[in-house]
Amino acid sequence: MSDALLLFLPLIVPAAAAVLALIIRAFKGPQAIVGVLGAAGMLIVGLMLVARTDALGVIATQSGMWPAPFGISLVADRLAAAMVAVAGLVALAGSIYAWRDLADDKLGPYFVPLMQFLLMGVQGSFLTADLFNLYVWFEVMLVASFVLLTLGNKRQQLEGALKYVVLNILASALFLIGAGLIYAQLGTLNMADVAVRLAHPDQVDLVRTSGVLLIAAFGLKAGLFPLFFWLPSSYHTPRPVVSAIFAGLLTKVGVYALMRTSTLTFAAKAPVLLELIYVIALLTMVSGVLGAAAHFDMRRILSFHIVSQIGYIILGLAMMTPIAIAGAIFYTLHHIVLKTNLFFISGLVQHIRGTNDLARLGGLAKATPWIAALFFISAFSLAGIPPLSGFWAKLAIVLAGLDLKAWGAVGIALGTGVLTLFSMTKIWAEVFWKDAPPDANTTDNRTGLWPMLIPCVGFVCITIGLGIWGGHVFGFAERAAEQLLNPREYIEAILGPDAITVEVPSAGRMRP
Fold first, then answer.
1. 148 domain residue, yes or no
2. What angle separates helix 389-403 from helix 407-427, to the nearest 10 degrees?
3. Residue 332: inside a domain, yes or no?
4. Which of 165, 227, 322, 389 is the most buried (most CB within 10 A)?
5. Over the stretch 390-413, which tens digit does the pLDDT of each residue have?
6. Where are the alpha helices (DSSP H) in 24-77?
7. Alpha-carbon gap, residue 498 to 262, rounded angstroms
8. Number of domains in the chain
9. What is the pLDDT of residue 511?
């Protein structure tokens, strides 16, 4: 298979699945099958991309007959390929998990096409090499995600969706302003071409100004301090499968954009921006975990933990050393799987008892011990308990901090882990360990759970596997980090070997 086809397939597969699902929207069973097959196709293509980029390095293609930087470029390095593959994995798990809701007509006839369009936007964001096209893919995601948030037309959903869309429109505006400044000064938005032109010493002011705007835009989409409040106000309102896919993927698109632009453009030219990201990351970790400790709804607690765990990833990015970037990449992949699964499990709890309010729950350890075991393993991995994947992800970030003598960051990272364990223990005690309150008026619906259990069991197995046999994955993350920190291969794959006329510096490093 040619590189060009392999790069376009992650966009073609979900687009085709969305159109087909829209055509057959009156037939729930066939439509659900289309969703599963489309997601499986994305996963297969993603794994092929991982194998190709790990063996051959960065691959790129240009659409039409327009050469870069004038045409639309698609590019995949190890990081982009891994994100495409894990997005396909989450899509497949979500398509299976949604089978029961589709059968019961709780998601309506437009869920599958909307989800496929959302995934097309996600995959396009990972593969584009152009800032303007990144903005376009963001808007595709925004439109699809807004409609998905409102499926059901409940008042709470509409309120959450309004907060979500208003703040994301603000992020889009900041993104456009930052990109506009770059285009006005440089005459290009191709990220490789921008990196080459910014290598000239007279562009430091532009790097700082546009860098702050891009950090604000991508940070808002990723759920960073101080503009993260839309996330816990929105992610607990839709159907559990929608919350799970949003929790696993959407914030990681903002994280990916920060990783790509930081290492490719402004990290080497304006290390002060890394220091800004460093401070934001620490505040994000603390505010997220404190918000989780203060709430008493299962999905709200998990939503706040998205914020705190994103802080770990961005901290690794800010430290900008090989082990820190490798740790951030490993943490991203681990967190996508784990957080999606925790929201899946919260959906199981809601399906059985009809609520996620901890005060109205209890007794599930006896009633459903298999669900208790799934949550127990996932919660301990989130808190960083060895030998699960969360431990190795946090360890890499902590080791990077120790290497830089960033004692404050190490202390906050360890303290956040303790508070994460506390809030996970609170969920365990209230939902599973204690007896159900006699006045809670709870239901006990345990019928038709198997489509929801299959992805939960699969993701728990992945979490355990990443913890015990994750050395190969971390080795891949180290190779991906090397590509990010040395962008020459990425630039030459897009523009050609003769495009670099000045030395493009490797990504900088935060001052300890």
1. yes
2. 160
3. yes
4. 389
5. 899 999 999 999 999 999 999 999
6. 28-56
7. 24
8. 1
9. 47
